[in-house]
Write a structure and sequence with these properties.
By secondary structure, this protein is an alpha/beta fold. It folds into 2 domains: about 15-30 and about 210-345, Nitrogenase molybdenum iron protein domain (Rossmann fold, 3-Layer(aba) Sandwich); about 45-200, Rossmann fold (3-Layer(aba) Sandwich). Helices cover about 30% and strands about 15% of the residues. It contains 11 helices and 15 strands. The protein has helices at about 65-75, 95-100, 110-115, 140-145, 175-185, 190-210, 240-245, 265-270, 290-300, 310, 330-340, and strands at about 15-20, 20-25, 45, 50-55, 60-65, 80-85, 105, 120-125, 145-150, 220-225, 230-235, 250, 260-265, 275-280, 315. Strands 1, 2, 10, 11, 12, 13, 14 and 15 form an 8-stranded mixed beta sheet that branches. A 5-stranded parallel beta sheet has the order 7-6-5-8-9. The longest helix has 22 residues, at about 190-210. It is globular, with a radius of gyration of 20 Å. The chain starts with 15 loop residues before the first strand and ends in a 5-residue tail after the last helix.
């Protein structure tokens, strides 16, 4: 599992080529200028089996987790943010100035702090925000006249109950497009949402065209080497699966039904990935150089010395939020594709 440690921090630089290592920052959204909310009257969307009806566009938004924060800015709602929490890396440069004026928490605010900001809408990229001991369930917030929306990648499974953060959920780029479109509708910015989706689709189409006919047998492991000797990897049910497919690769752990899993070094050696994707996390000031620390851990591990990716130093450092449903997904797929098939770019 890619874990969230709040003790480290990031700057996502523009495309940076290291020896055997690729890293980049995404420029995924539209400009940061505020959008005048469309005056469309009541709007209704359905998300995670919840029907959300708003009489007008939210004016006081609290955004939780990096993909939600960037989406709010991309939709031109940065001037309506009353608070934010949990940036994974440095925010995209085009939103940095606007984000600097918004109250920020490294962790969840208390319920009392949240209520003191008088939000009328909470936008979260992960469903563990909506648990009784965190911000409260979505029903709890509704009782306080606070509407809410959680990204579809993290809709709780029916058997898991509201708020379970690691249930099984298939997620694809269509999941992301739906979220962008629906949040755009709720925030009164449908045209901006359509522009973001159109740009992402264009990047995906271009990437697929470039890698068409390439050797897709190259295996990719998205994983973090832990201090306890296990490796956290991305399985086959999250959006990372489709990112790797678009990039023209094969997920070495596609057969694992869960989004994330912890595997042994022995299993990692047996699967012998050709490329390792790293996504350093978490903190609003993390630098791409933090990815080098993870590379060093792999190359210093004797047990991994014969893994093809380690031996050949084929590491790709991507922005952490690019691996979870949000506006960076298309650019992340393109970055990985360029690393897997450089002759196609």
């Amino acid at each position: 599992m890619i874990t969230r440690s709040r003790s480290t921090a990031a700057v996502l630089a523009s495309l940076l080529a290291l020896t055997g290592c690729t890293s980049t920052s995404d420029s995924a959204g539209t400009g940061s200028s505020p959008a005048t909310p469309a005056s469309t009257g009541p709007v209704t969307v359905t998300s995670c089996q919840r029907t959300i009806t708003l009489d007008g566009s939210p004016q006081r938004i609290f955004a939780v987790f990096h993909p939600a924060i960037e989406l709010a800015h991309a939709l031109g709602a940065g001037d309506r943010l009353v608070g934010t929490a949990f940036l994974d890396n440095q925010i995209l440069p085009e939103y940095a100035a606007a984000q600097a004026t918004v109250p920020y928490n490294d962790d969840y605010p208390s319920k009392e702090r949240l209520y003191s900001l008088t939000p009328d809408f909470v936008l979260s990229a992960f469903n563990d925000a909506f648990t009784p001991d965190v911000l409260g369930s979505q029903d709890d917030l509704a009782a306080q006249n606070i509407n809410s929306y959680v990204f579809g990648e993290w809709c709780p499974a029916a058997e898991a109950g509201e708020g379970n953060p690691l249930q099984l959920k298939e997620a694809t780029f269509e999941t992301t497009y739906t979220d962008i479109t629906q949040v755009g509708t709720l925030l009164g910015a449908p045209d901006r949402a359509a522009d973001i989706v159109a740009r992402m689709k264009a990047v995906v189409d271009d990437t697929r065209t470039r890698v068409r006919g390439a050797d897709t047998s190259v295996t990719v492991a998205v994983g973090t080497l832990r201090d306890d000797g296990t490796i956290s990897v991305q399985g086959g049910s999250g959006i990372t699966q489709e990112i790797i497919e678009i990039a023209g690769g094969t997920n070495a752990y596609a057969d694992i039904a869960t989004r994330q899993a912890s595997v042994s070094v022995e299993d990692f050696v047996r699967r012998n990935p050709n490329v390792i994707v790293l996504a350093p996390c978490c903190g609003k000031d993390m630098t791409v150089a933090d990815g080098q620390k993870e590379i060093d851990k792999y190359t210093a591990a004797p047990a991994l010395a014969d893994v093809t990716a380690v031996r050949d130093k084929r590491f790709v450092v991507v922005p952490f939020p690019g691996l979870f449903s949000g506006i960076r997904n298309a650019d992340t797929a393109a970055q990985i594709a360029k690393a897997l098939h450089p002759d196609r770019f």
